[in-house]
């Protein structure tokens, strides 16, 4: 009596059987994905939403694709190009702005998430004719080279000094029960999210320290 389990099987037969099995399992999933893609493309325009906020003291109302980042809203829709798009992944800090008094990476937040908020960009801190003390210190200490990171550096530094005044600790703060002191280590830790590819860090530190002394 023969046992079919022990019949010889060719390599071609094994491959053919596997391919057929894979086709049966993959085809429904592919068809479902294709149908979903087709339904999305046939939907037409992307989802839009209205958002209103204050930027540098002025009210703005925009209708935007809900996927628009705050950075793109500022640069592309309000033409405030001081905030730079560096990595677009929240790693370099070039896009730093101040929202309700706190510094954030504007590339990592959607514009529609900032409804009703107060936003300050580098343009709102000062102008060439009336510079903010931090801007003036960066000029005097040559705290920039190519200048691409400078708007984010300055916005971050201004908000960082407010954090220190408010008693917000950092990873470098030794005593969490005491008011933090802006030591060199504290300053460098707090500004570590802002990258300068020209490596003007020592000049940036000097500029921030000068403003901190004047504000003390």
Keywords, separated by commas or semicolons:
single chain, 216 residues, alpha+beta, DNA polymerase, domain 1, 7 helices, 42% helix
Can you count the beta strands?
5
Biggest sheet architecture: 5 strands, mixed
Quaternary state of this entry equals single chain
What is the helix/strand order?
A: HEEHEEEHHHHH
Q: Mean pLDDT, as a whole number?
A: 88
Count of structural domains: 1
Structural class: alpha+beta
CATH class: Mainly Alpha
Poorly predicted residue ranges: none
Largest beta sheet: strand ordering: 2-1-5-3-4
Approximately how much helix is present in the residues? 40-55%
| Structural Rg | 27 Å
What is the overall silhouette?
extended
What do these coordinates show?
This protein is α+β, with helices and mostly antiparallel strands and 216 residues long. The chain has a single domain, classed as [2Fe-2S]-binding domain (DNA polymerase, domain 1, Orthogonal Bundle), CATH 1.10.150.120. The protein contains seven helices and five strands. The protein has a five-stranded mixed sheet with strand order 2-1-5-3-4, with helices on both faces. It is extended, with a radius of gyration of 27 Å. The chain starts with 10 loop residues before the first helix and ends with a helix. The mean pLDDT is 88.
Secondary-structure blueprint of this entry?
Elements: H1 11-42, E1 48-55, E2 58-65, H2 70-77, E3 96-99, E4 102-105, E5 118-120, H3 122-125, H4 133-140, H5 150-165, H6 184-190, H7 201-215
Parallel strand pairs: 1-5
Antiparallel strand pairs: 1-2, 3-4, 3-5
Helix pairs in contact: 4-7
């Amino acid at each position: 009596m023969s046992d079919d389990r022990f019949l010889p099987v060719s390599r071609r037969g094994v491959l053919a059987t596997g391919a057929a099995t894979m086709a049966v399992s993959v085809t429904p999933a592919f068809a479902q994905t294709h149908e979903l893609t087709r339904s999305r493309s046939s939907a037409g325009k992307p989802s839009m939403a209205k958002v209103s906020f204050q930027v540098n003291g002025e009210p703005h109302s925009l209708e935007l694709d809900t996927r628009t980042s705050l950075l793109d809203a500022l640069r592309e829709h309000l033409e405030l190009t001081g905030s730079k798009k560096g990595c677009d992944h929240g790693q370099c800090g070039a896009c730093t702005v101040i929202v309700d008094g706190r510094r954030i990476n504007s590339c990592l937040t959607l514009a529609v998430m900032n409804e009703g908020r107060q936003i300050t960009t580098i343009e709102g801190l000062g102008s060439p004719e009336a510079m903010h003390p931090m801007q003036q210190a960066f000029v005097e200490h040559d705290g920039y080279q190519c200048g691409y990171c400078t708007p984010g550096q300055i916005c971050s530094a201004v908000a960082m000094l407010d954090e220190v005044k408010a008693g917000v600790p950092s990873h470098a703060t030794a005593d969490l029960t005491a008011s933090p002191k802006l030591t060199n280590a504290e300053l460098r830790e707090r500004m570590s999210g802002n990258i300068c590819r020209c490596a003007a860090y020592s000049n940036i530190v000097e500029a921030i320290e000068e403003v901190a002394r004047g504000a003390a």
